[in-house]
Every structure is written in structure tokens, then in C-alpha cells.
Amino acid sequence: LLIVHDGPEYDRYSDLLGFVATMVATNRLPQLRVALLGPVDRNEHYAAYPTYARALARELVPLLDWLAPQPPRRGDGRSWRVAMGASLGALAALHVHRRYPELFGGLFLQSGSFFQRHVDGLESGFPHFDRIARFVSTVTEAATSRYRIPVGMTCGTVEENLANNRRMCDALALQGYPVTLAEQRDAHNWVAWRDSFDPHLTDLLVRSWREP
Question: C-alpha 193: how far from its chain's center?
Fold first, then answer.
């Protein structure tokens, strides 16, 4: 199961479902389901908001499991679910993972809004900047993590988010996550995220679902 923040927008502007269907039809991905989650209050709920993380983990994912039952967990105990998001949606996916580590077996994070005070001063006017920065600090300052799921990251080379994505990638790598960051010559937009699906989303899904 691929759980997608801003899912309807991902499909409308980046043809996510068409891409997945093509990858399955050409045997580059196994059969899978995609849950397109639409935000209610995006700036609030995706900004490292504990109430949203709890609702996703304890209410929405169990409902999805009932509607689309999952196979048993992998041999190493990891979930077959993968979470995906762009910008604040990527931040929210990482935030949910850190609060509920057994929920996902992989993360695909595009142009994540991993705001840090020393590199993202231009974003300091965002209403929930301080909450995001506090969460990001807890991740980047952690020495290790017991839940080292595969993480794929992408970011444009002309984005303001590039510096904080590089720092987040380095922090996760030091904690033992198998993480990659793909940089491409583009900006913070749906076309850039779509153009990163192949090979980076495909590779992340294969890594996440490969049996140990």
C-alpha cells in the first residue's frame, strides 16, 4: 500500500496513478494499492502536528487496512506500507514515522519542508515554523534510530529547501537509515516531482518491498 499525502493533487498534476499503472504493467513494480489522501487544513495538519499523526496512525490506517487488507509483515517485521509526500506532505510523512515507527516500511520524501532556523530564515513567517523547526531538530540531533526503514528523497537544485534536505539526508544516514537524495535541475513544483518518479520512486518502492 502506497499512502500519499496531497494524493488527489499528486494524481491530478503529476499523473501518479498513471505512472504506477505503467510500472505495474511493465513488471517494474508488483501489484499494489494507492491511497490518495487529501488534506483538510494542510498548513496545520502537515506541519508536524501530533493530532494529525495520531489520527492517521490510529484511525485512518486501520480503516485502510480494513478496506484493503495488507499481507503479513515482512520477515524482518517491517510493514508493507510506504508513505509519500511533497513539501509539507513530506515533512508530515517523516513526522508520522518518527512518532509511530512501525506504521511504515519506507518513505518517499520530495522537497521536504524540513525547516531549520539557521538555513531557512526566509520561511520564518510561516505560521507553524517554530513547531516544524523543533521537530526537525529532534530528528537531526538524534544519535541513532531503531527503525531504519528505506528513505528516498528528491529535491530541485534551485529550491530554497535544498540545504535542509541535504542536512536531513545526512542526519538520517548517520542514524543508519538506507537513504538516498536525488537532486535535479528544477524547482518546487508538480512537474519536478513527477519527473523524479522514474527511477527514484520506483527504486524506493522496490527497496521497501524487497524481502530481507
Answer: 12
190 sits in which H/E element: helix 190-195
Cβ-proximal residues to 160 (8 Å cutoff; 6+ apart), any chain? 120, 122, 123, 188
Q: Which helix (H) or strand (E) holds 169?
A: helix 162-174
73-132 pLDDT, tens digit each: 777 778 999 999 999 999 999 999 999 999 999 999 999 999 887 776 677 677 888 899
> What CA–CA distances, in Å, run from 140 to 58, 135, 165, 197?
26, 9, 11, 26
H helices, E strands: number in the chain: 10, 6
pTM exceeds 0.85, yes or no: yes
CA–CA gap between residue 19 and residue 24 (Å, rounded): 9
